[in-house]
Amino acid sequence: MANLVGACGQAGKLPCERGVASNNAGELLSGGVRFRDGDEEIRHHIGVCAFSQYTIVDQASVVKVPRELPAEIAALFGCAMITGGGALMNDAQPKSGDTIMVVGVGGVGLATILMALTIKEATVIAVDGLQNKLEHALAIGAHKAMTPAEVIEKGVKADVVIEAAGNVKAFETGVKALAVGGTLVTVSLPKASDMAEISPQQLTAGGRTLRGSYMGSAVPNVDIPKYVELYQAGKLPLEHLVSSYIELDEINEAMDRLANGSELRQIIRF
């Protein structure tokens, strides 16, 4: 069994720019398109085209996982886990006892929370505007759950903030919540034209750090085996990320539910 992910590269190499270029072009990492409908080319989505019964992938986009790992769990080690977990561990690099805030509690945000709960003596705060997502975050172990307005009104601060909401207001909330010396890592992709308003003085005077993280700055064939090991040890219960199971012909409705925030991760059963 193998898990299919949009891999950035291999251990010891940094070809992420090549991965981004191939993703934008709708091609495989090795170049070109392998799907066609008659004479019409059908572009590859993030290298894997997972919304299809059969697919063709580049070898570099495949990561081997243990045969006994259920396929429905293996799928979660792609974007959900390497994006959220990777942003926390590879980019933010929290310390024991840190307060970790996750702004945006969708699939990626919840994956971040699960990873944060593996940090010794960390306090984990979930932030979202939807009550059902805050309740889910508490159910999987988050120590506190708050709306963005509550964070600002109460002046809540965190050593590490992971922003995974995908909008500028969430980013700005995360920046305001940064403690002195804190680090914010954003993994979201709002519109390129969207602009945030922040104070450079807040960064300078407080020694705060802002950084971006694409796919968790992960090297999939290095990071995914680590996360699988945590899952098998019972420390990373990814099944909590799944909100429903769907058939392939439900994909359009599933995308609508994802957009309106009523779902977390939906698993397609073929």
UniProtKB/TrEMBL annotation:
<protein>
    <submittedName>
        <fullName>Alcohol dehydrogenase</fullName>
        <ecNumber>1.1.1.1</ecNumber>
    </submittedName>
</protein>
<keyword id="KW-0479">Metal-binding</keyword>
<dbReference type="GO" id="GO:0004022">
    <property type="term" value="F:alcohol dehydrogenase (NAD+) activity"/>
</dbReference>
<comment type="similarity">
    <text>Belongs to the zinc-containing alcohol dehydrogenase family.</text>
</comment>
<feature type="domain" description="Alcohol dehydrogenase-like C-terminal">
    <location>
        <begin position="107"/>
        <end position="230"/>
    </location>
</feature>
<dbReference type="InterPro" id="IPR013149">
    <property type="entry name" value="ADH-like_C"/>
</dbReference>
<dbReference type="InterPro" id="IPR011032">
    <property type="entry name" value="GroES-like_sf"/>
</dbReference>
<dbReference type="InterPro" id="IPR036291">
    <property type="entry name" value="NAD(P)-bd_dom_sf"/>
</dbReference>
<keyword id="KW-0560">Oxidoreductase</keyword>
<dbReference type="Pfam" id="PF00107">
    <property type="entry name" value="ADH_zinc_N"/>
</dbReference>
<keyword id="KW-0520">NAD</keyword>
<keyword id="KW-0862">Zinc</keyword>
